[in-house]
Amino acid sequence: MANHEKPVINGIQVDLGSLRAIRHKCRPGICKDRHSCCTKYAPHVSHAELERIVGCFPAIAHYAGGIEGGSGYKNVFEEWGDATYRIDANDDELCVFAYALSSGEKLCALHSAALDLKIPPAELKPKACSLWPLTLSDGALPELSVDKRWHRFPCNTISEDTLHLDAGVINIIASVFGLSFLENLI
Q: Which long-range contacts (CB under 8 A, 24 or more apart) does 143-151 make?
């Protein structure tokens, strides 16, 4: 792919080709009998993200009761080298912050708690979760691209319009990186 298809914005290289190749629409109702992004996906969490999440445990526990234990809360984070952590999963490989409505829809307790607290979900959820199905690589020049497993999840499809970004992808980029980043990209 030509370099003009990978512009650098605010120190992040953007793989426009891969971003234009997908459509994304989060629809919790289609996840009830299938894998969701909360299944078999162990996001890495920075220390700052962990502290933000732990600080909101009372609101989160309203949705994810499994984080409560004894007279407090369980440690649901696993150390994962270089000051990062991973969020634990239950026996079904479902994130401990995932919960299901009586209709079977799978939702995120972090997202729901953020809405209750009147803060943008991207400010509480780990960046890896807020970006899904996009991904940001590590390194001197991080690259914004699409997770290699995007096609395994029913909320993602191949885009027919490879000249423009899908509205779902636009919303993800705007919520995680801000409107200025998005305007520079478009």
A: 143/6, 143/12, 143/13, 143/14, 143/15, 144/12, 144/13, 144/14, 144/15, 144/19, 144/173, 145/15, 145/18, 145/19, 146/15, 146/18, 146/19, 146/21, 146/22, 149/41, 150/22
Domain count, the chain: 2
pLDDT tens for each residue of 169-185 = 999 999 999 999 999 88
Rounded-to-integer distance, Cα 36 and Cα 41, Å: 9
Residue 32 maps to a domain: no
Q: Rounded to an integer, what distance in angstroms lies between the CA atom of residue 69 and that of residue 157? A: 39
- The secondary structure of residue 89, as a DSSP letter, is B
Residues 143 and 114 in one domain: no
pTM for this predicted structure: 0.83
Q: What domain range includes position 79?
A: 38-119
